[in-house]
Predict the 3D structure of the following.
Amino acid sequence: PESSKIIAEVLARYKNLWNTIEVTSYEPLLLQEFRKYCPDIPTDLLFPRSESWMKLDVVIYMAIHRSRLAGARAVHLHPAQLTRKVVDKIRKQGIEIHAWDVNDEQSLKTCTGSDISRICTDNFQQAKSFRQSTLLAG
C-alpha cells in the first residue's frame, strides 16, 4: 500500500520530466492512491492477458470499469485482446488504448490496424524497423 507514496516521493525529484512519464499498474487502487500525490502524471491501467474463460465482452466490461475505478487515462491491452469491437467500445467511453507485449510482427500489425498510438515492447529495434517500413509504404 505504501508503494504509491514511495514512488511519488522519488518522482518528485524529477518534476521537469513529468510530461514524459506515465505510471502503470494492474491495481486500480494503487493508481488512485498515486494520483493523490502526483495528479499531473498520467496513470494507465495494465489489463492482464485473458483467462481461458474470458470472452471479449468480459474484457470490454472489465477494462472499462477497472479503468474508471483507477481514474486511468488509458488501458493497456494485450494484442490478443485488440479487436475492432473491443477498441471501439472502450474508446467510446473516453478511455485511450495502449498495448503491451507487442513483441512480434503480427502484434505490431494488430496494433497498427487498431490505431494504437503507444505500445510496450521488448524488441525496440523490431518495432522501429516495422514503423519505418510502414511509413515508407504508406
Q: What stands out?
A: The radius of gyration is 16 Å. The CA atoms of residues 125 and 131 lie 10 Å apart.
